[in-house]
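Q: Here's a chain of 298 amino acids. Please give me its 3D structure as tokens.
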Amino acid sequence: MATAPRQQAARSRAPGPRRKAAAERPADDDGQATDDGRATKEQQGRVRSTTGDLLNLVEQLSNFDQIGVTRLARHLEVPVPTAYRMLRALERAGYVEQLAESKEYRLTLKLFELGSRVASRTTLRDLAAVEVERLAHQAGLASNVSVLVEGEVLYLAQVKTEELLAVNLTPGSRAPATCTAMGKAMLAADFRMARSIVGPGPYPRRTEYSLTSYEELFTELAEIQRLGYAVDRQELNLGVWCVAAPIPGVRQTQPAAVSVSAYRSHLDAAEEERLGKLVMAAASRISDRLGGLGNMVS
């Protein structure tokens, strides 16, 4: 009878759990699907290898003023197309440039810039620590040291007092340069460049006292340059006053500054001047501690 075969065929067509098609499953580098979607050991190894090749390429390039793709590929022991792809990736990221006439490649100064930033921050954080502590004791106030990064103040080190524990400006945090004493002090060190660093405005308004126009900022930077120190008059946080001075000797590569902060309803001119002298002296001592290294990174 034909009934049994038909029933058997129907059962074979009955819906049930199906395996994902290979095209629907994550694939490894060889196009082989992996059921769990995780990268295979071989795939992970290739990622590490590619990263290692790029770093090796950068190190090789550092040994030459300029070099062609074929010669570089021989040094790297990789195919010429592979060397070319890596060079193009580094060129897009700004680490490598191709010379127009010879078509050879060389490293740009981007690595130098990165290294200088790291050296400057590390040196400041480590060498300024003693002076930041000393300043806090002299002033009886919280003290900070920071650098200027893309129009913002990046806090590196801090000595807090009990009254300022609530202010959330810990090392690693950022604040707009135009709202802070340290930011304005660093901008004033070469205020002709201020507009290119922070833009034409309007600037962030953190409180009703914040400077928001370039005209206001320019006028204040000129006064800061005359005095040698800057004052934040509740421009970042209501009730918080800060006085800061730029640290000489590092401004061209990584502008830096040191400050003191306090809760006050008002800070009179005499107190501003007293604190201004303290922060300028601290900035000078930090610069002395940097010594030849300070001159080198500038």
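Q: Can you summarize the key feature?
A: The chain has two domains: 44-108, 116-297.
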